[in-house]
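Lecture notes, part 5. Sequence design as translation. It can be helpful to think of inverse folding as translation between two languages: the language of shapes and the language of residues. The source text, in structure tokens, appears below.
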């Protein structure tokens, strides 16, 4: 799994958040991700020791448009299973 990152629409300091994301995606930031045991999103950065070659990793297909379309229903299903705070 790669290290997920996002800037929320409710972020109070979007410019700083953008700089943080830029760092995470930089070569130096990807080296930090590797040290934490994540697969780097950036090509040319070595995988953590013991991980399979990048081209042998099977990635599950996703229909992004369908995921966005179904997100509200999925959230309701998730909340129904795991509860909400």
């Amino acid at each position: 799994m790669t290290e997920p990152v996002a800037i929320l629409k409710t972020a109070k300091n979007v410019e700083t958040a953008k700089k943080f994301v830029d760092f995470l995606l930089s070569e130096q930031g990807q080296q930090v991700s590797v040290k934490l045991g994540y697969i780097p999103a950036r090509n040319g950065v070595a995988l953590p020791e013991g991980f399979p070659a990048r081209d042998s990793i099977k990635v599950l297909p996703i229909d992004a448009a369908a995921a966005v379309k179904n997100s509200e229903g999925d959230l309701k299903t998730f909340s129904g299973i795991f509860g909400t705070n």
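The translated text above is only one of many valid answers, since several sequences can fold into similar shapes. The two ends are 27 Å apart (CA to CA).
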